[in-house]
Amino acid sequence: MNDHNHLRISRILRSLRILGLESEAAAFYKVLSDILHSANTQLVSCRSAEFWRRSAERPLHWSPQIPEDICHADKNWSLGLDFLREYEKLKMARDLQKQHDENQALEEKKEAEFLATKEHIAAVNAARDVHEKRVAASRKRKIGDSNISPKSKGIDFTESEERCIFESQLNENDQHSVITNASEVMSKPQPTIGEDPTIQKGRTVTVPKVTNPVGRSIVREVQHYQLLAPRQP
């Protein structure tokens, strides 16, 4: 609990700090703290533990023997040796500069991330605008193509395709004219069996030629042929 070697530990901690070995002093004090807090029983006295803490954490111009209330009252740092006060001021300024640099680096990193995000958003919006323009142009092109006839576009269709297209474009007047022509042919006399279909009672009967207009379906051609051809049993 009370050993004169405890004083030597305080001197070691303070001497390391005065010689500029702050990291070694901090590591040594951490080992001492782990030993004190891990033990089930009290190894050293509270006075020795307090002196170790002062030697490791208190500013160097305040010696461990000075009470805490006197240190708190020394606002102008008038106690202690001059070179230790200058050293503590320099170290404080260095710590403040380090903290400022870290904060500035953090701000610069945030600013760079913000600019990168802004550029990414601008690139995404530009790509979306280009895509929308392409879609709109494609829609306009499709609408324009639908209003142009196949002939004007230079597209060749087969005969059956042309018939279907032409049949869909027939109006009621064209259909009525076809039916009227078929009725007129049926009213004319037809040749009998065994006779030449082109000769009847000394006169020539002209059989209308079955035409094949473009655009007429196969079923309409058969019906038209049945109407115009001579009747057979």
What does this 3D model show about the protein?
Strand 1 and strand 2 (203-204) form a beta hairpin. Helices cover 65% and strands 2% of the residues. The chain is mainly alpha-helical and 233 residues long. The protein has 3 domains: 5-80, no CATH class; 81-147; 157-193 and 216-233, no CATH class.
How would you summarize the topology of this molecule?
Layout: H1 5-18, H2 22-38, H3 46-57, H4 68-73, H5 82-146, H6 159-168, H7 172-187, E1 199-200, E2 203-204, H8 218-228
Helix pairs in contact: 1-2, 1-3
Based on the model shown, name its key terms.
2 strands, 8 helices, mainly alpha, 3 domains, 233 residues
Report a brief summary of the structure.
The protein is mostly helical. It contains eight helices and two strands, in the order αααααααββα. The protein folds into three domains: 5-80, no CATH class; 81-147; 157-193 and 216-233, no CATH class.
| Helix/strand/pairing category | mainly alpha
Topology as a string of helices (H) and strands (E): HHHHHHHEEH
* Strands ordered across the widest β-sheet: 1-2
Largest sheet: 2 strands, antiparallel
Number of domains: 3
Mean pLDDT: 76
Q: Estimate the global geometry from the Cα principal axes.
A: rod-shaped
Helix content: 55-70%
The Cα radius of gyration reads 56 Å
Uncertain runs: 191-201, 207-211
Number of helices: 8
Distance between the termini: 141 Å
Number of strands: 2
Question: What percent strand?
Answer: under 5%
